[in-house]
From TrEMBL:
This is DNA-binding protein. Residues 15-46 form the ChsH2 rubredoxin-like zinc ribbon domain. Coiled coil: none annotated. InterPro entries: ChsH2_C, ChsH2_Znr, NA-bd_OB-fold, Thioester_dehydratase-like.
Length: 145
């Protein structure tokens, strides 16, 4: 059995974007404070309104935890969850599964890696930027004339 996130009213747009392999950060419409995970109110000014800002899923490792709890059925324990400081959005920390055969290092550069768990569930994992196997922007194919 695979892990199935349960999108709610506030996080549904996030999961829908991830499923389309798009990465965007929810920002307060009033003061611009980023919200992760997505939520109904700004933690700073309590404004409800928000907008989505598409950015590259690139950042640096802030910290990580090794989970010994079987939160994810079927997953081998322990597993590693990293907290990533986004390069493009000041003050925005996001987290996700670590995807590498080695442990992360504090401050190392990482890129998001969309991981299709099942046909309708996609997660955003994080991998070392120097891994070479993950491309944030695949090169566009230009028609040859
Ligand atoms: Zn605000």
């Amino acid at each position: 059995m695979a892990y199935r996130p349960e999108p709610d009213r506030d996080s549904r747009p996030w999961w829908e974007r991830i499923a389309r392999k798009e990465f965007a950060v929810q920002e307060c419409a009033s003061c611009g404070t980023p919200r992760f995970p997505p939520r109904a109110f700004c933690p700073v000014c309590r404004t409800e309104g928000c907008r989505w800002r598409e950015v590259d899923p690139v950042g640096t490792v802030e910290s990580w935890i090794v989970s010994h709890q079987p939160f994810v059925p079927g997953r081998l324990d322990p597993y590693l969850v990293v907290m990533v400081r986004l390069e493009a959005v000041s003050g925005c920390l996001v987290y996700g599964n670590w995807r590498s055969t080695r442990p992360p290092e504090h401050g190392e550069r990482v890129v998001g890696a969309f991981t299709e768990v099942t046909g309708d569930v996609t997660l955003l994992d994080w991998a070392p930027a120097d891994a070479g196997s993950v491309h944030v922007h695949p090169p566009e194919r230009k028609p040859s004339h």
